[in-house]
Amino acid sequence: MLLISGVASKMWTRVPSVNLIWMQLKVKQFKDAIDNSYWFEFFIDDLPLWGFVGELHPDRHYDNKHMLYTNKNIIFKYNGNQIIHVNLTQDSPKPLEEGGVLDMTYSVKWVPTNITFARRFDVYLDYHFFEHQIHWFSIFNSFMMVIFLTGLVSIILMRTLRNDYAKYAREDDDLETLERDVSEESGWKLVHGDVFRPPRNLVLLSAVVSTGAQLATLVLLVIILAIIGMLYIGRGAIVTTFIVCYALTSFISGYVSGGMYSRNGGKNWVKSMILTASLFPFMCFGIGFILNTIAIFYGSLAAIPFGTMVVVFVIWAFISFPLVLLGTVVGRNWSGAPNNPCRVKTIPRPIPDKKWYLTPTVVSLMGGLLPFGSIFIEMYFVFTSFWNYKVYYVYGFMLLVFVILIIVTICVTIVGTYFLLNAENYRWQWTSFFSAASTAVYVYLYSIYYYYVKTKMSGFFQTSFYFGYTLMLCLGLGIFCGAIGYLGSNLFVRRIYRNIKCD
Questions:
Q1: Do residues 258 and 314 touch, judged by C-beta distance below 8 A?
Q2: 177: pLDDT strictly greater than 70
Q3: Are the C-beta atoms of 501 and 168 separated by less than 8 Å?
């Protein structure tokens, strides 16, 4: 029974005024929910049910009359002792008025079916939406972008570098030509004594690069498991798999961080290890804590139970953190020895002023455009599946986009790094990271567009959850792309300086 006012209208004088205000507020909330077409979702045996709160009926006394659904009919389809499908219909709308008492009822009907338990989620898969022609076209378009970029990088850079290498490969007896070339020498060759200088904030760079390497492995692993095991059929299966796999892949972040920090002459490896282990989890925890506080304040079921938070913390403390420690120790001992192709000079070379489009800020901002262009169609499907409650199941598409994103990010970052070095700016490490990480900035800007154009969300609660979870996604994407960009540029820089002759 739903009590709208709490008591009959003739007894209102005996109800405290505070209660009356609270009851009027509840009625107003119901009316606002009906006006804005709010609907609810609940689960039976991991199968979702959806229904609207109510509807508007024309009334001769008022422009519209708010009607609240009071009866729910639930149909269960079963095969043996397993529920295969559930369906909800609603009827008996009653006017929503203060002082009224509404009886809430429901009915249940059981219907046998021949559909197997393994196929019970097929009815929720929107084949027309996810396998639309535009989805296939976006994959093809991104694939062509990869071919173009890899070809462009190979042709431009290899031709340019081949000419540069030819100058260093001349015979010693061609002294006149060699001296002329050296006197005219400019660009990336001049900074060979500074290009392997340790970057600023080495501890932080080691932490974000190693975390990004872990996230790349994690995303690839989760996508493969989703393709093999159809993780979408279980409620919360993707999130659970993500948390468990994150903990188990923590060795990778420790190994990359320990080796990178030691190769660049880092001394305080314990600080680097702690930052690596806690950076991304604590950022997510901070955002989640704020969102959880908002959910508790609004009395929403979206609030994460305290027991779940304790379990996640235990997994981090007793699985993830020890694996990062082990990986750091192994990385320092196995790959921590400096092996730079060129000797680092004692006195840093001054960086000359260049045109605005060769500054690190512009290179960083421009670097994320093409990677974003290769994934923004897929981001539309991901956003729609998450915020419009569609079941995302096309993980084969996601795997292709994941590979395309990595290739495009590496190519674009290498080009940006090459331009930066040609401008005689040897501080390429952070620029290569931010050049790739700026992809997440464009994704977040796209999420703002999606919020205002594609959704009907409103209010502080929905807005905070939308942009909070999107921020969490973009932080992970930025760290992942930044790490891929840095590692690709690092291989490129070491390769080109390995072949030059220098003192």
A1: no
A2: no
A3: yes
The SS3 of residue 168 is: helix
Spatial CA neighbour of 233 closest among 382, 81, 384, 43: 43
487 and 216 in contact (C-beta within 8 Å)?
no
Q: Is the pLDDT of residue 6 over 60?
A: no
User: Which of 91, 94, 93 is CA-nearest to residue 106?
Assistant: 91
- Per cent of the chain over pLDDT 90 is 43
Instruction: Report DSSP state, residue 400.
Output: H
Under the banding of pLDDT at 50, 70 and 90, the label for residue 18 is: very low
Contact 324, 273 (CB under 8 A): yes
Whole-number CA gyration radius for the chain: 30
Per-residue pLDDT for 5 more than 50?
Answer: no
Q: Report the run of H or E that residue 47 belongs to, with start and end.
A: strand 47-52
Residue 50 exposed, middle or buried by CB count within 10 Å (0-12, 13-18, 19+): exposed
The answer to whether the CB of 75 falls within 8 A of the CB of 107 is no
Which of the two residues, 95 and 161, has the higher pLDDT score? Answer: 95
Mean pLDDT of 442-453: 95
Dihedral sign computed on CA atoms, order 58, 62, 66, 71: negative
* Locus of tokens 């499907």: 381
And the tokens for 33? 């929910």
Location of structure tokens 């959850």: 465
Contacts of 10 (CB under 8 A, 6+ apart): none
CA 7 to mean position of chain CA atoms: 50
Q: What is the DSSP string of 285-317?
A: HHHHHHHHHHHHHTT-TTSPPHHHHHHHHHHII
Query: Could you count the other beta carbons within 10 Å of the beta carbon of residue 366?
Result: 16
Structure tokens at 421: 């070095």
Two tokens at 166?
């030819």
**What length does the chain have?**
503
Strands (DSSP E) contained in 364-454 are none
**Residue 167's pLDDT is what?**
60
Are the beta carbons of 74 and 88 closer than 8 angstroms? Answer: yes
Which pLDDT score, from 0 to 100, does residue 3 have?
42
pTM of the predicted protein model: 0.83
Residue 70: phi and psi, rounded to 5, are: -115, -10
Angle at 415 (CA atoms; ends 412, 416), nearest 5 degrees: 85
Confidence of residue 12 (pLDDT cuts 50, 70, 90): very low
Cβ atoms 216, 483 nearer than 8 A:
yes
Give the H/E segment covering residue 192. Answer: none
CA atoms in the 13 A half-sphere facing the CB of 224: 8
pLDDT at 496: 84
Q: How far apart are CA 57 and CA 52, in angstroms?
A: 14
